[in-house]
Specification:
Number of helices: 12
Radius of gyration: 50 Å
Helix content: 25-40%
CATH topology of the largest domain: Rossmann fold
CATH architecture of the largest domain: 3-Layer(aba) Sandwich
Largest sheet: 5 strands, antiparallel
Number of strands: 31
Number of domains: 4
Strand content: 25-35%
CATH class of the largest domain: Alpha Beta
Oligomer: single chain
Shape: elongated
Length: about 575
């Protein structure tokens, strides 16, 4: 029996002595040699091994005596490839690379590039950090890397309006271990808005772990005319203090005296006088005995105290706007002819028989005469109804009527408006061809004998027909007045150009119907207006004026109101003209 026990003991000792030697037979003598490169943008590590090695490679986060896996290991067969790329989830300062043989019992080669450097990615550090409320007296922060290698500051802060104002340095009650930091919070005011703020490399991470059930007192405030009233409701007997302060981005700087009050279980009231409402101070409240870390900050809304003034001011402004609107509407409702007018007569010449063009011309004439009180001469209106001079087109004919109206408007310092169109461009070419075919002698005789008095129109009509019947048998053939009146206007316009008297002629075109490029080059130097968006410029060209006397006591205000009304009128009339074109 003793012999068997002795033999068994000898075998066990032999196996224990020989097992390391057997294991080392399968392990390389030297540690695997390798190199690696880091890519922070992609959070990846590229590892290179020497030829002839069959090894495992892995990334890990180094601790004091161990290295926790950061990503799954990768096998490298150097006969196939000598490198491998490993992507890590978090880019931390304790990231390391480890290479070892396929035999897990062999020694391993470990390299850590940045164990003592700053945190590469602060966001990854916050993502791996865990905050745990161990009990009502202990708070723990756990990190993946050794916290002693990083410069982390901890503070107690009051969270309000999206900010967290520091109220106490929590590092005073901090204990730092390898991977965690412990805080004694037994004397901390555990309000839901009382949070813990960690700061690292200019970045902050805030954790609010307290609940309302953990707080033993509540505070509220009210802003009145007499000042600021602070109400405290406590479930325990304690001493509370309040103080005004000036809030900044990080702290609340005290500005007034410290007011303290002992209270039993119940409500305590503080009255603070706010001397300068423009500075808009806040108030900080804390439990002073037994002392609790942290101060609550409350900022009243001082704008509420001025709501009454703002409301009255707004009502007065609304009433003023209503009165001005009623006065302005009363002026414009009667038509601006009672306020603005065009003193000079206007000769409006139509150039096309298209229905849209004729409607636009008639609408423009109605606007100028009805709204602005202008004297408008239009052949379409005077065709059967006598014009301002008492002469109808049918009585004297289109050409004499146009010549007479042209001279009348020019002598009265008026303006001639020619409505241009695509048909006008073709009519101008035909008119120019006819003009070139007629002899210069006939043209001079035709122009020199043109009457200048309205009483001579009937004589002139029959005299021209008798004299030029053989040369121009088609002078009065058109069945409407538009074509002959337009040709006569071209003749007068060419004569005015030769005499340098064409400053009182302007061209008007319709948007979408034609453009200024359609106007012949001979007339390009004259004013041109495209309706309806240039209607304001047109009425300014017509010389619109207020009906009040120029020697009025309120001449400056009159001119200002006239410009406002002119602008408003241009907008309104442009809409009417646009509706007519549609």
């Amino acid at each position: 029996m003793r012999l068997g026990t002795t033999l068994a003991f000898i075998v066990v000792v032999y196996l224990l002595l020989e097992s390391p030697r057997l294991t080392q037979l399968h392990c390389p003598k030297d540690l695997p040699e390798f190199n690696f490169t880091l890519n922070e943008s992609s959070k990846s590590v590229t590892i290179y091994v020497e030829p002839g090695n069959h090894v495992y490679v892995r990334t890990c986060y180094k601790r004091l005596i161990s290295c926790q896996d950061a990503a799954p290991k990768v096998f490298i067969d150097s006969t196939v490839s000598q490198s491998a790329v490993i992507t890590v989830p978090y880019w931390l300062s304790c990231l390391c690379v480890e290479v070892y043989s396929t035999n897990t019992d062999c020694r391993r080669s470990l390299k850590c590039p940045s164990t003592d450097s700053a945190v590469p990615d602060v966001n990854d550090f916050w993502s791996t950090m865990k905050v745990k409320l161990e009990s009502a007296n202990s708070l723990t922060m756990i990190s993946r890397c050794r916290s002693s290698k990083t410069e982390i500051s901890t503070a107690l802060c009051w969270k309000h309006d999206g900010h967290c104002t520091v109220v106490f340095d929590l590092s005073l009650v901090e204990q730092v271990h390898e991977l965690k930091r412990e805080y004694d919070i037994s004397a901390v005011d555990k309000h839901p808005q009382m949070c813990v703020q960690w700061s690292l490399q200019g970045s902050q991470n805030i954790s609010c772990s307290f609940t309302s059930e953990m707080s033993s007192w509540m505070a509220d405030f009210e802003l009145k005319k007499q000042g600021l009233f602070v109400y405290i409701n406590s479930t325990v007997a304690a001493k509370f203090s309040v103080q005004l302060c000036k809030l900044s981005q990080t702290t609340c700087e005290p500005t007034g005296h410290n007011h303290s009050l002992n209270t039993e279980q119940g409500i305590a009231t503080f009255h603070l006088s706010v001397l300068s409402a423009e500075e808009r101070p806040c108030v900080q409240v804390w439990q002073s005995e037994p002392a609790l870390y942290g101060r609550r900050i409350m900022c009243p809304n001082y704008s509420r105290s001025r709501y009454g003034v703002y409301v009255v001011t707004a009502i007065v402004c609304v009433l003023i706007v209503i009165v001005l609107s009623v006065c302005f509407h009363s002026l414009t409702k009667k038509g601006t002819a009672g306020w603005l007018h065009v003193p000079r007569p206007i000769l409006l010449v139509c150039s096309s028989e298209d229905s849209v063009h004729i409607s636009a011309v008639c609408a423009l004439a109605s606007i100028l005469q009805g709204e602005l009180g202008a004297t408008v001469h239009l052949a379409l209106w005077a065709q059967s109804v006598p014009s301002e001079c008492g002469i109808r087109v049918a009585d004297v004919g289109p050409l004499p009527w146009l010549y007479g109206q042209w001279d009348t408007v020019i002598e009265a310092q008026g303006i001639i408006l020619i409505m241009w169109s695509l048909e006008a461009k073709r009519a101008y070419k035909n008119w120019w061809s006819e003009k070139e075919s007629v002899k210069c002698l006939h043209q001079k005789d035709y122009i020199s004998q043109r009457p200048h008095n309205l009483e001579d129109f009937p004589k002139y009509k029959f005299k021209r027909i008798e004299k030029h019947a053989t040369q121009r048998p088609d002078v009065f053939e058109p069945c409407t007045v538009i074509a002959p009146v337009f040709k006569a206007a071209l003749t007068c316009l060419m004569g005015a150009l030769q005499e340098n008297k064409a400053q009182k002629v302007a061209f008007v075109s319709l948007h979408g119907q034609n453009s200024s490029k359609d106007i012949p080059k001979a007339f390009r130097g004259m004013p041109r207006f495209c309706l309806p968006h240039q209607f304001s410029g047109l009425i300014q060209e017509l010389g619109v004026k207020p009906r009040l006397s120029e020697n009025s006591k309120f001449h400056c205000w009159t001119r200002l109101l006239s410009k406002v009304l002119c602008f408003w009128l241009a907008k309104q009339l442009a809409k009417r003209l646009k509706a007519t074109l549609q």
